Amino acid sequence: MNMKLNSIISLFILLLTTNLSFGQSDSLKVLGLNLENYNYPFDVNYITINSQGENYQMAYMDVLPEHANGKSIMLLHGKNFNGAYWEQTAEYLTKEGFRVFIPDQIGFGKSSKPEHYQYTFQQLARNTKAILDSLKIEKISVLGHSMGGMVATRFVLMYPEITDKFILVNPIGLEDWKLKVPYKPVEWWYKNELGKDYASIKKYQLESYYDNQWKPEYDEWVNLLAGWTLNIDYPRIAWNAALTYDMIFTQPVCYEFENIKAPSLLIIGQRDRTALGKPLVSPEVRKTMGRYPQLGRQTQQKIPTCELVELDNIGHLPHIEAFDRFIEPLVIFLKK
Fold it and tell me: Domain spans of the chain?
């Protein structure tokens, strides 16, 4: 009995010291399945998407400028994020006259979390196009960050007639990871997701996104994911996350950049080394993955009309880590 008690005490101390070492926020709270108790920076609208025989609610923000310049831009979020992290970007762009459209993909943010869904980038692009059609938007610039870059790429390939300009900000999918990473089934990713907590989420973001250079304002994006792990319905969230991992690994877009017709811009933080599946490969192979300086230059050569902006000493989230350096080249490009 004493041995069992000592083990429990040791585990408690380990968890406590781990949380303290990663500075767990006192404001961490249980978040709703669809972030019902988390306020987005702008009014949230919903559209019913009929997909794969079911109806789902897809959330989006439609931020209108006070003095419109007649142009619109769509901001697509990454896998571990939602539309809320575009707040500062949207505020700046609306002041410049742009209408800013920010969707949450099905399975993310305030949108529905299906019990069963076949995730494809084509399906996500089609869902997104349905919202634009409902708003009668006929021309729009498309910007994608991280996984949103893969969604954005598929969107502009499927709908070149509606695409004005194409922007990628530290996107994943510039390389085909399945050539290096052994395949893992959805069940493996699901088990991996179920094991996540505040400490593991922050550790991943600290090492992968910010190269061990942390600022207190980054905590919000950890808390959003960690708050979900406390929800009784977290297994459904984890299952959706597992399905999207499978989509990322099995549906590369890097072979089709040459087919993009729109004027394009790459904004690449040079310190980024994000690559899914690194723990599954040898240290030697790991060093060859997520080399964004090289990937950015290679991708620029693949896209017919493409500019490249390299941001030295910036990681995976330029619009969070170095907003001024991110927004200036973006606005210059959009106004051309």
Answer: 40-335
Q: 229-257 burial, b if ≥16 CB within 10 A, otherwise e?
A: beeeebebbbbbbbbbbbbbbeebbbeeb
Q: Which residue(s) pair with 59 in the sheet?
A: 46
Residues listed for the chain: 336
Q: DSSP string covering 228-266, please?
A: HHTSTTHHHHHHHHHHHHHHHHH---TT-GGG--S-EEE
Establish how many alpha carbons lie within 13 A of residue 99's alpha carbon, considering only the half-sphere containing its beta carbon. 14
At 1, list the tokens: 């009995």
DSSP, collapsed to helix, strand or coil, labels residue 277 as coil
Averaged pLDDT, 180-197: 96
The CA distance from 230 to 179, in Å, is 35
Asked whether residue 7 carries a pLDDT value surpassing 60, the answer given is no
Q: Please check whether residue 127 is in contact with residue 51, taking contact to mean a CB–CB distance below 8 angstroms.
A: yes
- Which residues are CB-contacts of 12 (< 8 A; sequence separation ≥ 6)? none
Amino acid at 320: I
Section 295-316 average pLDDT: 98
Range 40-335: architecture per CATH: 3-Layer(aba) Sandwich (3.40)
The larger pLDDT score, comparing residue 9 to residue 242, is at 242
What percent of the chain stands above pLDDT 90? 90
State the average pLDDT for the chain.
Answer: 92
User: What single string gives the DSSP state of each residue in 8-47?
Assistant: HHHHHHHHHHHHHHTT--TT-----TT-TTS--SS--EEE
Can you list the positions of beta strands (E) in 64-146?
72-76, 99-103, 140-146
Give the model's confidence band at 1: pLDDT under 50 very low, under 70 low, under 90 confident, else very high.
very low
pLDDT of residue 25: 57
Sorted by sequence, the CB contacts under 8 Å of residue 145 that are 6+ apart come out as 75, 76, 77, 78, 81, 168, 169, 170, 171, 317, 319
Query: Taking the complete model, does pTM exceed 0.90, yes or no?
Result: yes
Radius of gyration of the chain (CA): 20
